[in-house]
């Protein structure tokens, strides 16, 4: 609400504040991985002594960005920080492009995501191209994404990516695991991924990083963050400092986050599009004893997720959310045992958490964005 009001009465506020940071503005955008990549980049820059303003709540649309700035701005409209690193929604970032000038833009990928807003990949490519056009120093982009690789922004292009072996060894799925063989021969590359550990090649030197969650997609996010940090810091970049910062970074809420709720350890797994659903499900431990799945109103057309093979879940004790029947049907067709369908998310969460501790693994909740927000609200967790 504060952002909506300020944008109405002072439409120049957002652009003015974004232009006020001494070391400039960094914009992170793309279909998926924005929140994690932003948090990784902020962690690395902060560890190098930079004072960074960011939007940690992942409020990445116009009013959310404005509200985040209002929280820190002085009466003169300035924020005490060296630079800003902001996650921006693809659509809102493109509409805001005329109101900011970025020192660096980081683009993660183009995927089929939010089909009610972004109906085709070329539309997303065009929006990201608009954002990239505002970079003055460099555009750091995922060179394994064919649509991003075709962009020709006025600033220098710095690609990051993965080696062919990593793609071959990646979990079966969509998105990253189906990209064309990498064209990225220099820059920052992912050379191996094992669980929460990834091997990168930075400036031709090996670098081991601990990831906040399991999966090759998180390793790609780390590569992007490291590549951007290297560009921003220049000779001051220290790979050891960067690795140490990533090792202690907690996940962005819902992205492989493990927390204690009502005395029980729970892992939250957020799935937002077919690619993230497949990759995250493929990383689940086999034979988990207690899994809950929740799909909310953010999924306008549940058939969107039908390309995902969710059979690794094995057994879902409770399926919930406003689209509980639809996701339960998909799970059943894919051989997953569904013990109970409870559309009332609050009742489902209470029942799931009231169960004794699992015999294998930890309690795991797989949910879409709407159910994630409602879950955190019901459980009194910060968002």
TrEMBL record:
PANTHER family tied to this protein: UDP-N-ACETYLMURAMOYL-TRIPEPTIDE--D-ALANYL-D-ALANINE LIGASE
InterPro entries, alphabetized: Mur-like_cat_sf (IPR036565), Mur_ligase_cen (IPR013221), MurCDEF_CellWall_CoF430Synth (IPR051046), MurT_C (IPR013564)
Pfam family of the protein (one): MurT_C
Mur ligase central domain: residues covered: 28-229
Keyword ATP-binding appears in the UniProt entry: yes
Protein name according to UniProt: Mur ligase family protein
Stretches assigned to the Lipid II isoglutaminyl synthase (glutamine-hydrolyzing) subunit MurT C-terminal domain: 270-350
Keywords per UniProt: ATP-binding, Ligase, Nucleotide-binding
Stored Gene3D superfamilies: Mur-like, catalytic domain
GO molecular function: ligase activity
Source domain of life: Bacteria
